[in-house]
Amino acid sequence: MPTPRLQALQVYPLKSARGIELARARVGASGLAWDRHWMVVRPDGVFLTQRTHPRLAHIATELTPDGLRLSREGCAPLLLPFEAPLPALGVRIWRDACVGLDAGAPAAAWVGALLGEPVRVVQAPQRPERRADPHYAGPDPPPLAFPDGFPLLICTQASLDALNERLGAPLSMIRFRPNLILTGLEPFAEDRIDTLRIGGVTLRLVKPCTRCIIPSRDPLTGRPDIDPLPVLRGFRFDPQLRGVTFGMNAVVSAGAGEMLERESRCEVTYRPA
């Protein structure tokens, strides 16, 4: 078996918009730097994603020295500064009530014009009060910006290859929106991994990722496309979680502040059978 390696690093600065592949990324307690750091919400603060607003897939993201640059066809780009004095806005992600920083009227108008309804854009505070679920993350759960529930999502290339064999049509990994893609492992080995050490960073894999409708959409247009969920349901249904799983959610147990680099060697430990 080849040596496990970190094949790719991905961040998704604006939740549910397009991601960015990086050669290096700093990891903190809340995940990769700038990952899910901005989010679109309704005027009442409830979060929006491609589940209900597939046109978010039209937004491309770029991290610049000055901030996050958003772009889409037929419109001038929008820059969201990294640091700005922004007013607080109460927001909700699933059952979590937390605080976002309102990016202002120009940002709201830019995204609202794409979605065809009033929205706000919010940025995560420097020290988020939201926390991962302690049932899985442990008694000292890490802080979260705006991911669905955990700092990191890890998938393996072999698992995608196994799925594609069953589908009979190749899907790209971007359908599943992971942060780390591993190679050199058996299909679905991530299910059994306890810890993953990459350089000075140690990650603990804590919960299978249950899947929604987003992997069934074209990642560039948001339109319905090949749906992997019926095939996954045939061999990846988790009765305890009551959902189809692909990939593992993870927390940072050591090395916050260190850099992760693409093609780094990974040291894997497995949970007892």
Account of the protein in words:
The chain has a single domain (5-270), classed as PK beta-barrel domain-like (M1 Pyruvate Kinase, Domain 3). With 273 residues, the protein is mainly beta. The longest helix has 11 residues, at 105-115. It has 4 helices and 19 strands.
Explain the layout of strands and helices:
Layout: E1 5-11, E2 20-22, E3 24-28, E4 31-32, E5 38-41, E6 60-63, E7 67-72, E8 75-81, E9 88-93, E10 96-102, H1 105-115, E11 120-123, H2 134-137, E12 152-156, H3 157-167, E13 180-183, E14 193-198, E15 201-210, H4 229-235, E16 237-238, E17 243-254, E18 259-261, E19 266-270
Share in helix: 10-25%
Q: How many domains?
A: 1
Largest sheet at a glance?
A: 9 strands, mixed
What would CATH call the architecture? Answer: Beta Barrel
C-alpha termini separation:
20 Å
Number of helices: 4
Mean pLDDT: 97
Strand percentage: 35-45%
Mind telling me the CATH superfamily name?
A: PK beta-barrel domain-like
* CATH hierarchy class name: Mainly Beta
Look at the helices and sheets and give the structural class.
mainly beta
| Helix/strand order | EEEEEEEEEEHEHEHEEEHEEEE
Taking pLDDT < 50 over at least 5 consecutive residues as the criterion, the unreliable ranges are none
Secondary structure: number of strands: 19
Q: Tell me, briefly, the overall form.
A: globular
Summarize the structure.
The chain has four helices and 19 strands. By secondary structure, it is mostly beta strands.
Task: Offer a few descriptive terms.
273 residues; mainly beta; M1 Pyruvate Kinase, Domain 3; nine-stranded mixed sheet; four-stranded antiparallel sheet; globular
